């Protein structure tokens, strides 16, 4: 039986550096990189103007992504997902994805201060003006209300 690829995913507040880490990890491991921001921007251009919009369109994306990732992992190819694993429910989704096909996973928690996250978000607004409407301090605080620090009891395969 062919060995499954490994799924790599990240947890961290908005601006913690998840996208940067995901890109570096995918390059380092010669893995397929899947970015939620890219998929959402391509499939739903100019429709995500609020956190509520993000939740709506992100939920539509998950069933398609699930099967796609499982198919890639089943070929023995590693996948790095730049999708948030910032709540218990989101992390359970990642775990169910790999459990269904008996694939390994690695989980990275990027613990970064709110102050540093806000500095990075401000910089990102300058570098990517198309994200300026969503990448704000107000949205950061709104999203951070839902953030749940991961625990060892969740059954995650933690990496540093």
TrEMBL record:
One Gene Ontology molecular-function label: dTMP kinase activity
Leading EC class: transferase
UniProt-listed Enzyme Commission number(s): 2.7.4.9
InterPro entries noted in UniProt: P-loop_NTPase
Entry annotated with the keyword Transit peptide: no
Keywords associated with the record: Kinase, Transferase
A Pfam entry, by short name: AAA_33
Protein name from the UniProt record: Thymidylate kinase
Annotated source species: Marinomonas spartinae
């Amino acid at each position: 039986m062919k060995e499954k690829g490994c799924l790599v995913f990240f947890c961290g507040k908005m601006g913690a550096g998840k996208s940067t880490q995901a890109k570096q990890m995918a390059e380092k491991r010669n893995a397929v990189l899947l970015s939620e921001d890219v998929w959402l921007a391509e499939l739903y251009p100019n429709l995500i103007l609020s956190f509520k919009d993000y939740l709506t369109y992100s939920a539509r994306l998950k069933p398609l992504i699930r099967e796609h990732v499982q198919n890639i992992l089943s070929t023995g190819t590693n996948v790095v997902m730049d999708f948030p694993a910032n709540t218990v429910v989101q992390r359970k989704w990642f775990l169910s994805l790999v459990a269904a096909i008996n694939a390994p996973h690695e989980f990275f928690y990027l613990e970064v201060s709110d102050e540093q996250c806000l500095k990075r978000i401000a910089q990102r607004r300058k570098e990517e003006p198309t994200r300026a409407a969503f990448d704000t301090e107000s949205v950061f605080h709104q999203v951070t209300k839902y953030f749940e620090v991961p625990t060892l009891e969740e059954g995650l395969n933690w990496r540093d």
